[in-house]
Amino acid sequence: MADTDNIAVQCKGVTKTYGSGSTLVHALRGVDLEVRTGELMMLVGPSGSGKTTLISIIAGVLGRDDGECIVFGHDFRHMSHYEKTRYRGQNIGFVFQLFNLIPTLSAAENVAVPLIINGVKRREAIGRACEILSRVGLGDRTYSPPTQLSGGQQQRVAIARALLHNPKLIVCDEPTSALDHETGHKIMELLHDVAVGVDRALIVVTHDARIFEFADRIAKMDDGHILSVENSNYRLTNKKKN
Length: 242
Fold this sequence. Notes:
Elements: E1 7-18, E2 25-36, E3 39-44, H1 51-58, E4 66-71, H2 81-91, E5 92-95, H3 107-117, H4 122-135, H5 151-164, E6 169-173, H6 181-195, E7 201-205, E8 217-222, E9 225-231, H7 234-241
Parallel strand pairs: 3-7, 3-8, 5-6, 6-7
Antiparallel strand pairs: 1-2, 1-4, 8-9
């Protein structure tokens, strides 16, 4: 068991159901999970195993039915709507599988949204957005709207948006699903370098076995349960390289 001072996310007995009666679906069946500060945790498992539901609860965009979920010492259940929105805006970056880009805004404007919401002046926010778009290989597409970008480019815009406000927790749903092998590896290197620190953590839901090597630990899910949590060799391998 990790020292509680090093726990970014702690879930105990988390349950979630959808529907009722004959349409009732048990998405989570008493999930226990700890995510440590300074690590990249991957959630893997078949479709419908509860991965996206779990990260949505951790990120505060979905309520749980029962159990406990503490994120950097905070429980969303005990927050007002305003407090929850403000905390997410300052501390959590979420890369949605469907990107959720605003079609009428340019790539830079989409990326700048979290900063603008947090009160940063528009010019400064756009400038910082352009910088991080360059880091994900989109320096030449900063003023293109989503309709002029490929699926992979839109995915990189969504990732840049999640990273821009320097959140403590980044939650990604299939961040490399629309990317080729080389670009996917570059994005995972960036995510790991930017998001993983002594006071940060990164959770990635993925089916992409090509990026498993980037995990510090891998939690396997099925039928609403965590089946196992296994150590990976990413950090050890990179220490040897350095």
